[in-house]
Amino acid sequence: MSAIPFGTRLASELAAKRHLCVGIDPHAPLLAEWGLADDAAGAERMGREVVAAAAGVAACVKPQIAFFERFGSAGFVALERIFADARAAGVMVVADVKRGDIGSSFAAYADAWLRPGSPLEADAMTVTAYQGFGSLDGAAGYVRDHGKGLFVLAATSNPEAREVQQAVRADGRTVAQAMVADALSAGNPEDDHVNSVGVVLGATLQLSDFGIDVTAPPARPALPVLAPGFGAQGARIEDAGEIFGGLGWALLANESRSVLSGGAQGLAARVRDRADAVATALTV
Ligand SMILES: O=C(O)c1cc(=O)[nH]c(=O)n1[C@@H]1O[C@H](COP(=O)(O)O)[C@@H](O)[C@H]1O
After folding, report:
1. How many CB atoms lie within 10 A of CB 283?
2. What is the C-alpha separation between 66 and 73, in angstroms, rounded?
3. I need a surface site. Which of 113, 146, 150, 167 has the fewest CB within 10 A?
4. Atom 17 in ligand 1: which residue has the minimum CA distance?
5. pLDDT tens column, 138-148
6. CA nearest ligand 1 atom 10, residue
7. Tell me, what DSSP letter sits at residue 168?
8. Which residue in 95, 33, 102, 90 sits closest to 58, CA to CA?
């Protein structure tokens, strides 16, 4: 039995003008600011507070796995509890794991992060296709039959990435352009509005430098774009419409440090403020 495609679920969030993705990045200084210990219990507490603040306001939360891996198995237990809270609250989870490997090993990553019933089951995960797009095939069944999504790194927000992602391939396209095209064709054909496979495009970038045209009308199905780089990395969420143009239709704007900073007190108000700001920025 097929589950509701990820793209269809995402389309409902976008229709409700929920474009914000709140990062769960328990950096040590942020935990200190929250009055929490720099341990798994502290990271869990922060994550669960973020889920509570995001429910009904943001489209998703995005836990960055490195901040939990720091604590070994206890960190993974913390993540499992955060994921369970998110499921109960109806908040989608994008596991920011940036996985990629040869196909047979990648399939095990997909099993860990996307298989229904897995302790670390998320709605979508971030992946890298630098071992070739076909190396991601092990996730195809979860995308097609189990309502799961992928976000493929295409043009990332960090300046060092240009040397790889702006490189021009033998077919004349940049690496980033090819990632965008391959992501679109890897989506679920049942998705009529929003594809189930999207890309990561940094909000800090001039996307035309990567050969990505934001003036083109939205693809159909629309390509989900997970966009980090707002807030702490310098892009303004109020400029999301200008930065992403035609790609703004299915935009998930991520902020992590800028929303988490300031402590648990006021978190709900900060999340609502960012959610309203991006909804306004994308209203044409
Ligand atoms: O895949 C990501 O989420 C990601 C891709 C990218 O190009 N740039 C980027 O910053 N990220 C992640 O997005 C989050 C951004 O955090 P802030 O800069 O604190 O908002 C971090 O968890 C990064 O690991």
Report:
1. 9
2. 12
3. 167
4. 256
5. 999 999 999 99
6. 228
7. B
8. 90
The alpha-helical segments, DSSP class H, found in 39-185 are: 40-54, 66-69, 73-89, 103-114, 140-145, 162-165, 175-185
How does pLDDT run across 244-265, given as a tens digit for each residue?
Answer: 999 999 999 999 999 999 999 9
How far is the C-alpha of 212 from the C-alpha of 162, rounded, in Å?
13
Q: Is the pTM of this model over 0.90?
A: yes
Query: What does the alpha-carbon distance between residue 163 and residue 186 come to, in Å, rounded to a whole number?
Result: 25
Pairwise CA distance, residues 255 & 59, whole Å: 12
Q: How far is CA 104 from CA 35, 131, 135, 149, in A?
A: 43, 12, 8, 19
Token pair recorded at residue 138? 């092990």
Distance 1 CA to ligand 1 centre (A): 34
Place of tokens 């390509």: 223
The residues that bridge with 49 in the sheet, in sequence order, are none
